[in-house]
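Recall the central idea of this unit: under ordinary conditions, the amino acid sequence of a chain determines the structure it adopts. In this exercise we apply that idea directly, starting from the sequence alone.
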Amino acid sequence: MVGRIDQRLDELKIVIPQAQQPKVAKIKGAAILGNTLYVSGMLPQWEGDVRYIGKVGVDFSIEEGREAARLSALNVLAQARTALGGDLDRIKRIAKVSGFVNCAPEVTEVAAVVNGASELFLEIFGERGAHARVAVGATTMPLGVAVEIEAIMEIEI
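Accordingly, the structure predicted from this sequence is:
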């Protein structure tokens, strides 16, 4: 039986990539503690192909940064799907999202970049996708990517 989140993804024509193992860091992609799922920071990659290498405000526009955040958020969902045995319906709520933007010092629109992730979660989960958030500008990122997104979710156990 197809779950309601999978049906929603089909309606929206959104494809979630396969979860990838971290390339460099010695971490797990996700960890469950009680009814909380913690997803590690995910990079903008598709099936292991890292994209958006560079800085927002230098190599990428704010809109391109938003797309990088959206792709990173899709990888957050890939890790969540794996951790939850393939069942995204177990996500009761996206509780918190943290977004880190590799940007030029004069870029102050980091929140607009991270909106790419937030809007994806709202689009898929509706009100359950509304979350607390932090958006931070950084001078460097793992593998030189433009954006990294992590999330904390309440799940059914």
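Residues 62-83 form the longest helix (22 residues).
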